[in-house]
Amino acid sequence: MLEIQTLRKSFDGQIVLNNISFSVQKGEVVVLVGPSGCGKSTLLRCVNGLERIDSGAIALEGRVLTCDKTKWPLIRQKIGMVFQSYDLFPHMNVMENILLGPMKAQKRSRKETEADAERLLTRVGLLDKKSAFPRQLSGGQKQRVAIARALIMKPAIMLFDEVTAALDPEMVREVLDVMLELAEEGMTMLIVTHEMQFAKAAADRIIFIDKGEIVESGAPEDFFTNPRTDRAKRFLNMFSFENRKKKGLGVK
Ligand code: ADP
Ligand code: MG
Known about the structure:
Layout lengths: L1 E10 L2 E11 L4 E5 L6 H8 L7 E6 L2 E2 L7 H5 L2 E4 L11 H11 L5 H14 L15 H13 L5 E5 L7 H16 L4 E4 L3 H7 L2 E6 L2 E6 L1 H6 L4 H8 L3 H6 L6
Parallel strand pairs: 3-8, 3-9, 6-7, 7-8
Antiparallel strand pairs: 1-2, 1-4, 4-5, 9-10
Helix pairs in contact: 3-4, 3-5, 4-5, 5-6
The structure holds adenosine-5'-diphosphate and magnesium ion (MG).
Adenosine-5'-diphosphate (ADP) binds next to helix 1.
């Protein structure tokens, strides 16, 4: 579905992604993990054309995107993206937010799209909020609307960039549950998250990035129980209070 080959990206001469190669098969869930600043968001932004890459190639469904002829608005319809900050239009209600993309970009009829939107809102548990405005929703609800809004475009792949990072703890679960359901239904997904339990449960494959490079890539059971590199071990240790205790560092 998605193939990335020897991608390299720099900002102002500073290399932030180097020699990145991996692919995502149809129906596969790949989770990217790594310390803050390692290049995860930049990588997702390269995939949907928000950043230009220096060299290498990205292909979606066998079509190379990283050439000048790429029509990004068309390609982006195939790539659903959900960010950390829910960027819903504040002056539009939930239904209008969801209908905008398919009616404008895909010229689909309101009637057909509305039926689709209602089905998706039911799926994310928010049909009763279809007339509500974003300010009347909780953070978790807004993120679920954002997911529905991406799904209505019928994307070939969904990209998620730390979609629960800004949420209160009690709302994290409702968003992750929707993502887990999508995974079970066979949606192809590339996910950046710091929710390690979720990563373990949802991922077919974990890719660990550090300082702009892929350091490890493998099945979640292997990565979480048997990280091969010191860099991955150190990263995973940050999530474990038990290890801190053992080392006598205590838990503050
Ligand atoms: P992550 O998402 O893993 O935390 P990012 O992809 O956001 O990391 O950032 C990777 C590196 O690229 C960081 O050092 C960041 O400061 C830098 N960076 C990201 N976007 C820009 C930009 N538009 N201009 C310059 N530097 C950037
Ligand atoms: Mg980021």
